[in-house]
Design a protein that fits this description.
heterodimer, A: alpha+beta, two-stranded antiparallel sheet, 1 helix, about 25% helix, B: Nuclear Transport Factor 2, Chain: A, 2 domains, 4-stranded antiparallel β-sheet, 3 helices
């Protein structure tokens, strides 16, 4: 699920609130697209903050 | 008779007040859960396919410096390694860390910020449930973001 947002600080708690109500907040990771250039990027996991692992985007 | 009616009314009023008092703390605890976190800065250092990251967050509980590495040798399966979560005593310490990291000068290409929300497959009993729930949640998140004018 991809979302474009103007304000990451407020968007993340809003997303987590929806996931929490549905009971999926502990089973979710939220990544931020980090652009290397226009067509090349990778994802940096922002939630959970102590994430350790692989973020698959295929 | 009049005395017993008055006594019943008094008991009813007392009971009603008690109900209100027991509901109030519950409502308060739900609001108290929302701790706002703000990203003050994020610094990157690039070494071949590995990005070293320092991210400073500010919240009601103070300043937290997160450090982690992201290995992008397979960009579609970036591997993130958490290093530390350090509580900083004040903003001077944060400024000092920032100035002592001169090699953390790689900056991402500027684009509209994009978030990728992923629910782990293990949260669902089968693929049909995963598909239905994901569609439902996707819609709810979009509605929530739009209602606060945060994007879509």
């Amino acid at each position: 699920m991809l979302y474009e947002t103007s304000d990451i600080d407020n968007a993340i708690p809003t997303i987590i609130e929806v996931l929490n109500k549905a009971g999926f907040d502990k089973k979710t990771t939220i990544g931020r697209r980090v652009n290397i250039d226009g067509d090349d990027w990778f994802y940096e996991v922002l939630y959970p903050t102590n994430f350790n692992g692989v973020f698959l985007t295929m | 008779m009049q005395q017993s009616l008055f006594f019943s009314a008094f008991l009813f009023a007392l009971f009603s007040c008690g109900q209100n008092f027991t509901n109030k703390p519950q409502q308060k605890s739900i609001t108290q859960k929302n701790v706002m976190t703000k990203e003050l800065w994020t610094l990157y250092s690039k070494q071949d396919t590995i990005f070293h990251v320092k991210r400073l967050l500010s919240s009601d509980t103070g300043l937290t410096l997160l450090s982690y590495d992201i290995n992008t040798s397979e960009p579609e399966a970036a591997s993130q390694t958490f290093i530390s979560n350090k509580i900083l005593t004040n903003e001077n310490e944060a400024t000092s860390i920032k100035s002592q990291s001169p090699n953390f000068n790689w900056t991402p290409h500027k684009e509209t910020p994009t978030l990728f929300v992923q629910i782990d497959g293990s949260a669902f009993k089968d693929e049909m449930q995963a598909l239905t729930v994901r569609q439902d949640i996707e819609q709810k998140i979009e509605t929530a973001l739009k209602s606060k004018d945060l994007g879509e």
